[in-house]
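Homework help board

Subject: predicted structure for assignment chain

Our instructor gave us this sequence and asked us to write out the predicted structure in token form, then describe one feature. I got the tokens but I'm not sure how to describe them. Can anyone check?
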Amino acid sequence: MMLTMSELPSRLSVVTLGARDLPRLRRFYRGLGWEEIPSSDDEWAGFLLGGVLLALYPVDELAAEAAADIPSPTEWSGITLACNVDSREQVDAAFADAMAAGATSIADPVERTWGGRSAYIADPEGNRWEIAWASSARFDARGALTAFGN
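My token output:
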């Protein structure tokens, strides 16, 4: 069997959160100290995170583009976002910073059965974030994940 190259590159460029109250969500992420891209405003905002853009876009407009055939979700989507940190101890410090910025605690920092440490928070609109440390995670100088696993 011959493998063919796809025109779709193996990369993740943008994660878009459909925002019900975009100005509030924007303030939360700025409150974490994350730098916005210059074109951000209360109609669309973006934060460059280690090579991936976190975009905030009005949920109704996003649904019209990406999910016009289904009703608006009313419960958790089953998707989590993750921010891996550099040390086991940094999980607790990052969790405390997120709480100070207005996050809701979903699960306090704990040692995980997979050998790392993590906690879960929700942003003001309920999007779930894991703050995690894994000994196998490696990052480049700008914070992009370059290796994960043994």
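Reply (TA_rk): Your tokens look well-formed. For the description, you could write something like this. The beta strands are 14-19, 45-49, 52-58, 80-84, 104-111, 117-122, 128-133, 138-139, 145-147. That's the kind of observation they're looking for.
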